Amino acid sequence: MNQPRNLVIALDGSDPSFDALDEARDLARAMGRELSALYVYPHHRGVSATPAGLDEQTSRENLERMKEDKAKEIFSEAESRLGNAFAHRYVLTGDPAEEIIAFMEGNPGTHLVMGRRGLSKIKSLLMGSVSSKIAAHAPGLVTVV
Question: Which CATH superfamily includes the segment(s) 6-144?
């Protein structure tokens, strides 16, 4: 198997995602690769994000601002824990599992590192999990910490 070209940590601001950051940093060092970060702002299609009294354009601008603010907060926290900056920062919007899988399809050779939420077995079976879905359907290497 060819060694992945890109090493990407998926961050969502949760403790498990920051725990996975340590593993991603160690992998990047061992592989001699730069580490990039990916954040998916969870917004599901078909769900109206337009509060009463706001037009669609204003709502879109607010959504974009909230997404950028949250991404900046998460990336800044992660970079301060790492002590250095990411090679690339990717910010996507949508269902996290679907967007990450699509990202990997569009970026062959990506090795994704991500944390898991630690749902109970019952909740995982009933609700599924982002990390399980990505591990099962992603076209590249996925490490779940």
Answer: HUPs (3.40.50.620)
